[in-house]
C-alpha cells in the first residue's frame, strides 16, 4: 500500500467514527459521510479527492455546532490530506 493510500484509509477510518458518533450533529455526520465517499472514489486522482475533501472539511470545521473533539479530528484529517501532493 502506498503512502497516499495509507493516508486516505486512515482518514476514511476517522470519518467513519465521526459518522457513527451520535453526539455529532446530523449535518456534520452527513458531511463526514460525503467526504468519505469522495475519498473512496477511485475514478478521481488522489490529489483531486484530497482537495475536494479539504474544501468540505474546512466548511464543516467552521460550523458553530460542531463539538470540540470533532473539530480537532476534522483538522487532523485535513492536515493529513494536505500531505497528498498533486504529482502523487
How would you portray this structure in words?
α1 runs antiparallel to α4, α2 runs antiparallel to α3 and α3 runs antiparallel to α4. Helices cover 70% and strands 0% of the residues. It has one domain: de novo design (two linked rop proteins). The protein contains four helices and no strands. With 88 residues, it is mostly helical. The protein is elongated. The relative contact order is 0.19. The mean pLDDT is 94.
What's the mean pLDDT score? 94
First-residue to last-residue Cα separation: 13 Å
Q: Would you count the extended β strands for me?
A: 0
Order of helices and strands: HHHH
Can you name the CATH architecture?
Up-down Bundle
Total number of helices = 4
Structural class: mainly alpha
The rough form would be described as elongated
Would you identify the regions where 5 or more consecutive residues have pLDDT less than 50? none
Quote the CATH topology. de novo design (two linked rop proteins)
Beta-strand share of residues: under 5%
Q: Return the CATH class.
A: Mainly Alpha
Rg (CA only): 12 Å
Q: Helical amount among residues, as a percent range?
A: over 70%
Number of domains: 1
Kindly report the name of the CATH homologous superfamily: Ta0600-like
What descriptive keywords fit this protein?
88 residues, mainly alpha, de novo design (two linked rop proteins), 4 helices, 70% helix, UPF0147 protein MCP_0019, UPF0147, Ta0600-like_sf
How are the SSEs ordered, and which strands pair?
Elements: H1 3-19, H2 26-40, H3 46-61, H4 68-81
Helix pairs in contact: 1-2, 1-4, 2-3, 3-4
Amino acid at each position: 500500500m502506498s503512502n497516499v493510500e495509507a493516508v486516505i484509509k486512515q482518514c476514511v477510518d476517522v470519518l467513519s467514527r465521526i459518522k457513527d458518533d451520535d453526539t455529532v450533529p446530523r449535518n456534520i455526520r452527513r458531511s463526514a459521510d460525503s467526504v468519505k465517499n469522495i475519498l473512496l472514489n477511485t475514478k478521481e486522482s488522489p490529489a483531486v479527492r484530497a482537495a475536494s475533501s479539504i474544501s468540505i472539511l474546512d466548511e464543516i470545521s467552521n460550523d458553530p455546532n460542531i463539538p470540540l473533539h470533532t473539530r480537532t479530528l476534522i483538522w487532523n484529517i485535513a492536515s493529513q490530506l494536505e500531505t497528498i501532493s498533486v504529482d502523487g
